[in-house]
């Protein structure tokens, strides 16, 4: 309980467009005056003079690159950012054209891309029975990380079921066959399947299709709780601004690039490929060993077991 004349303090960061730092009222929230309009304000945006012994110019630049323009402006400069103002600069996406190269040296599987060894991968499938030209598209996105730390958006595949199976139970199996074929072609160790809606029953079908193809990729069903615009901004804003995200030439030739150029939070444009790629980028690189009985060779150097010497007995 606060007695009359008591001190009340609001402190907050990070924040959104509906922030304690807002200087203008938000009519959509029935505000006639800005929130905390009659309070004394202490605003300390981050700059080289804010706390020089802790935040050097180099440290501030690192934070800027890791945060991305939107989050940096919001959290560090105390500028309320409205979600619908967010946009992604497709010109900052870097292009490459290399192919995956699988080999074995002394019995050790190795996967390379443009001469660099790949150390982790993640793939996300957002299934749908729609078609790319109408309705939600079914999209598989695959992302790799190489030994130099580059994030590589290698494939964004728009899968379409055979129209002959449109009104039959086989349409789910048809999509799963396509995804299983891509998994084997791309040497994917894991596929995350969004189980919102029809994805609830597809993981088991996909596991069976992988087994039929003799490939033991792990299938993990995931439920998405976060709003789509939040995960897209988080996945792309900072890497694009830092010129740290690479995409294969095939991605540039897919509908993905148009989605990236035209995307706005809350907009009505298509974003199925963009969302699948965002989820693949945000997924923790899968480092568990192979599962099942399929003869998949593990190419990730951190995924194999190690034996450590001990100087004690059990």
Word description of this protein:
The N and C termini lie far apart (60 Å). This protein is an alpha/beta fold and 314 residues long. It folds into two domains: 27-81, no CATH class; 90-282, YqgF/RNase H-like domain (Nucleotidyltransferase, domain 5, 2-Layer Sandwich). Strands 1, 2, 3, 4, 5, 6, 7, 8 and 9 form a nine-stranded mixed β-sheet that branches. It is built from eight helices and nine strands. Helices cover 26% and strands 18% of the residues. 31% of the residues are buried.
Give a nutshell description of this structure.
By secondary structure, the protein is α/β, with parallel strands linked by helices.
Instruction: Please write the CATH class name of the largest domain.
Output: Alpha Beta
Query: pLDDT under 50 segments (min length 5)?
Result: 287-295
Radius of gyration from CA coordinates: 24 Å
Name of the CATH homologous superfamily of the largest domain = YqgF/RNase H-like domain
CATH fold category name of the largest domain:
Nucleotidyltransferase, domain 5
Count of extended strands: 9
Beta-strand fraction estimate: 15-25%
Distance from first to last alpha carbon: 60 Å
- On the 0-100 scale, what is the average pLDDT? 82
């Amino acid at each position: 309980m606060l007695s009359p004349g008591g001190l009340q303090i609001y402190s907050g960061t990070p924040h959104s467009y509906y922030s304690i730092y807002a200087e203008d009222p938000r009519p959509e929230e029935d505000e006639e005056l800005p929130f905390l309009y009659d309070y004394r304000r202490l605003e300390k945006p981050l700059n080289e003079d804010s706390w020089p012994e802790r935040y050097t110019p180099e440290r501030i630049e690192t934070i800027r690159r890791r945060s991305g323009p939107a989050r940096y402006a919001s959290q560090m400069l105390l500028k309320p950012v409205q979600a619908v103002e967010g946009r992604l600069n497709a010109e900052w996406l870097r292009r490459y054209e290399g192919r995956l190269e699988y080999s074995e040296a002394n019995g050790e599987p190795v996967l390379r891309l443009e001469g660099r060894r790949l150390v982790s991968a993640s793939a996300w499938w957002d299934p749908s029975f729609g078609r790319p030209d109408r309705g939600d598209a079914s999209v598989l996105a695959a992302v790799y990380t190489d030994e130099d730390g580059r994030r590589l958006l290698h494939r964004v595949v728009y899968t379409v079921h055979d129209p002959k199976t449109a009104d039959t139970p086989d349409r789910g199996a048809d999509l799963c066959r396509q995804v299983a074929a891509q998994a084997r072609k791309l040497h994917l160790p894991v596929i995350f399947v969004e189980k919102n809606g029809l994805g609830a029953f597809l993981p088991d079908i996909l596991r069976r299709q992988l087994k039929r193809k003799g490939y033991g990729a792990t299938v993990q069903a995931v439920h998405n709780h976060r709003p789509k615009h939040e995960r897209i901004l988080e996945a792309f804003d900072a890497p694009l601004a830092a010129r740290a995200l690479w995409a294969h030439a095939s991605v540039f030739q897919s509908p993905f690039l148009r989605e990236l150029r035209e995307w706005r939070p809350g907009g009505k444009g298509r974003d199925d490929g963009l969302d699948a790629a965002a989820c693949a980028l945000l997924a923790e690189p899968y480092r568990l060993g192979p599962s099942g009985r399929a003869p998949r060779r593990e190419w990730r150097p951190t995924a194999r077991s190690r034996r450590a010497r001990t100087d004690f007995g059990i």
